Amino acid sequence: ASYLVVYLWEDVSLSPAAAGAVFAVFHASGIGARIVLGFFAGRLISTGNLLILLGLAMAVGIGAVTAFTPEWPLWTIYATVIALGVSANGWVGLFLSEVARLAPEGETASATGGVQFFMYFGISGGPAVFYGIYKLIGDYEPPFMIFAIIAFVTSCLLLRGR
């Protein structure tokens, strides 16, 4: 997400304001998704299975972002980014609730605090990794695709573990 605005501006030729608006919609869709997904988790689908589906959707969404071109209609960019925001921003509460549920009795705080360390390590270190790949290759698509592959492989490993 850190490079989405610059990618939309430099490679997809959106104006900075339009790219920023797309970025805002990405985040807004994630906020709304947290509420809706929280309602459905455990009622219609197990939280663990929903997290796997969100990971797969994230992989597909990130891959779709790499296909953006200046010829794409703006509404299709918004639709793609909304779907990506739902998956890439909507999973956090579900994940923490699942960690809390699976934590040994009396260890909920330690478990949720521990996984947040790794979550925020990714949030703070991910952009640096993305930039390093971008700087090495000189193109936005490879780092996006690497992150898509990571989401896909992780989801497959979780599915296999179920």
- Helix/strand-derived category reads mainly alpha
Taken in chain order, the helices and strands follow as HHHHHHH
Arithmetic mean pLDDT = 94
Biggest sheet, in brief? Answer: none
Shape: globular
Percent helix, as a range, is: over 70%
Total E-strand runs: 0
Write up what this structure looks like.
The chain is an all-alpha fold. It is built from seven helices and no strands. Helix 3 runs antiparallel to helix 5 and helix 6 runs antiparallel to helix 7. The longest helix has 30 residues. The two termini are 29 Å apart. The model has no long low-confidence stretch (mean pLDDT 94).
Which features does this protein show?
162 residues, 80% helix
Layout of helices and strands, plus pairs?
Layout: H1 4-10, H2 16-40, H3 47-65, H4 74-90, H5 92-102, H6 108-137, H7 141-161
Helix pairs in contact: 1-2, 2-4, 3-4, 3-5, 3-7, 5-6, 6-7
What's the quick description here?
The protein contains 7 helices and no strands. The longest helix has 30 residues.
